[in-house]
Amino acid sequence: NAGVTQTPKFRILKIGQSMTLQCTQDMNHNYMYWYRQDPGMGLKLIYYSVGAGITDKGEVPNGYNVSRSTTEDFPLRLELAAPSQTSVYFCASSYSGQRLPGANVLTFGAGSRLTVL
Amino acid sequence: AQTVTQSQPEMSVQEAETVTLSCTYDTSESDYYLFWYKQPPSRQMILVIRQEAYKQQNATENRFSVNFQKAAKSFSLKISDSQLGDAAMYFCAYSGGSEKLVFGKGTKLTVNP
């Protein structure tokens, strides 16, 4: 049981390049999330999904796109990379079915450190 | 929108001593959950403890316990008998009627031998 797997772990991009951060979970979780973590700023939600085919914006979605074609996969696409997107990115998943959506405990991936130069 | 505030960017504690990390939050919801997550140098986020707002009893997990004051919107984490492995960033987080989790900015805990 691998949990949440993110790839790559590290990547350096040039300004204007594009890339996709991959995220896969094998726990049959229906909720999936992408967060970014900047020093001293905590984690900010980029996009999330409550199930295959359904995605929604979080707090900081500009410059990113996502898709959710399967329950397992939730890739994050960066178009036209900018230095402001230098960050550590975390994918997470959780299972609904609790009394309240907010009860969900997130399982996180190990993070992907992205540097845009 | 809900907000979570951690007013202590850094804290330190001697090994075997007790330390308390502070967290306050703002919400208009009456039913919600609060969490403490730990992020060690490995970067892996790990759940420490979860509190349900409708339960008056404070949650505990071994050496970790919380002081949940609903009226004051306060949710502090107490670590007893601190160990070197407790050194990490600690994030307070809120989640209510939405699927989204809102995080504070974190407190860096140093444990001195």
Keyword list:
heterodimer, A: 117 residues, mainly beta, Immunoglobulin-like, 11 strands, 48% strand, B: 113 residues, four-stranded antiparallel sheet, 12 strands, globular
Walk me through the topology:
The complex is a heterodimer of chains A (117) and B (113).
Chain A: E1 4-7, E2 10-13, E3 19-25, E4 31-37, E5 43-51, E6 54-57, E7 64-66, E8 76-78, E9 87-94, E10 107-108, E11 112-116
Chain B: E1 3-5, E2 10-14, E3 19-21, E4 24-26, E5 33-39, E6 46-52, E7 60-61, E8 64-69, E9 74-79, E10 88-95, E11 102-103, E12 107-112
Parallel strand pairs in B: 2-12
Antiparallel strand pairs in B: 1-4, 3-9, 5-6, 5-10, 7-8, 8-9, 10-11, 10-12
Walk me through the structure.
The complex is a heterodimer of chains A (117) and B (113). By secondary structure, chain A is mostly beta strands. Chain A has one domain (4-116): Immunoglobulins (Immunoglobulin-like, Sandwich), CATH 2.60.40. In chain A, 0% of the residues lie in helices and 48% in strands. Chain A has strands spanning 4-7, 10-13, 19-25, 31-37, 43-51, 54-57, 64-66, 76-78, 87-94, 107-108, 112-116. In chain A, 36% of the residues are buried. Chain B has one domain (3-108): Immunoglobulins (Immunoglobulin-like, Sandwich). Chain B has strands spanning 3-5, 10-14, 19-21, 24-26, 33-39, 46-52, 60-61, 64-69, 74-79, 88-95, 102-103, 107-112. In chain B, strands 2, 5, 6, 10, 11 and 12 form a six-stranded mixed sheet that branches. Chain B has a four-stranded antiparallel sheet with strand order 3-9-8-7, with no helix packed on it. Chain B is globular, with a radius of gyration of 13 Å. In chain B, 35% of the residues are buried. The mean pLDDT of chain B is 94. The A-B interface holds A 31, 33, 35, 40-45, 48, 50, 58, 88, 90, 92, 94, 96, 100-106, 108, 110-111 and B 4, 9, 31-33, 35, 42-47, 50, 52, 91, 94-106.
